[in-house]
Amino acid sequence: MEIIIKDTYDEMCRSAAKIVAKTLNCKPDAVLGLATGSTPLALYKELVRLHQEDGLDFSQVTTFNLDEYVGLRRDNPQSYHYFMHENLFKHVNIPRQNIHIPSGTTDNYEAFCRWYEEQIVQCGGIDLQILGIGSDGHIAFNEPTSSLGSRTRIKTLARQTIEDNARFFDKPEDVPIYAITMGVGTILEANKILLLAAGKNKAQAVAAAIEGPITSMITASALQLHREVICFLDREAASQLKLVDYYDWIESQRPGAPSQAPAPHFSKLRQLRSEVR
Ligand code: GLP
After folding, report:
1. For the whole model, what pTM was predicted?
2. Whose CA is closest to atom 3 on ligand 1?
């Protein structure tokens, strides 16, 4: 894991946006995995700015969102469909048909979840996955004790998550109890992952995910198994990490670091595997 600690939330999001922009510049038809929540807001704002001011092109991009609340229609202001439209999609040129967000209102969740997984595979897998982290260490809505091999499915939200997310709703009782979410296993198949975390209330979960044991109690800890994760943190979110000095030292030495061969591309590997079969 690469740990990049920035002094401010905005700085952290601008750095993460640079990685997204670099991905699109190298691969204009990249498949992006997208997250909701307050954390990626400034990242999306920066991507919008890069699109509007610098011409960052999304016209060939495909997206898959991590999750959605069960029971919320797409026009509900608390739905993740609405969030994504307001904060990113309506400002950039991603073709509508390339946008995928789990449905919170399907008649058949099991079939939908299977279809969602198949769509990801058909699009060649996710090139770059953006993640936030819940205060209980979850990624997407993979609450504690979710299987680290899990796929897209329905999850019952933990009380902590319902409490945390109540701030977006009029009343805490309005927070849905169920969500449809990509699994930890689905997320781990992305070629590259950016985990973003900001603020003191994430510090404990961040420390457990990065420096603790791999455990389904903190599903973000499964990211330790992935070969290319970059964690962008602000100082507060990094405040409980034991090796902060080491992470800062690595960053300060980066300009002189020997260059590394890029990891093999996941979709390329999948293509090779299917050719061998
Ligand atoms: C929700 C989302 C997660 C997100 C988390 C943290 O639970 N399902 O994807 O990472 O909230 O949200 P925030 O960034 O608002 O703290």
Report:
1. 0.92
2. 140
Q: Is the CB of 87 under 6 A from ligand 1?
A: no
- The active-site residue, picked from 68, 117, 127, 136, is 136
Q: Exposed, middle or buried by CB within 10 Å (0-12, 13-18, 19+), for 118?
A: exposed
Gap between the Cα atoms of 214 and 125, Å rounded: 24
Distance 211 CA to ligand 1 centre (A): 20
Adjacency order of strands within the sheet including 153-156:
67-69, 178-181, 153-156
C-alpha to C-alpha distance for 68 and 61, rounded to whole angstroms = 21
What gap in Å lies between CA 81 and CA 55, rounded to an integer? Answer: 25
7 is catalytic: no
pLDDT digits (tens, 9 = 90+) for 7-63: 999 999 999 999 999 999 999 999 999 999 999 999 999 999 999 999 999 999 999
Tell me, yes or no, if 143 is annotated catalytic. Answer: yes
201 CB within 6 A, ligand 1: no
Neighbours of 183 (CB within 10 A): 24
Q: Which residues contact 76 (CB under 8 A, 6 or more apart)?
A: 82
Nearest alpha carbon to residue 5 among 237, 242, 254: 237
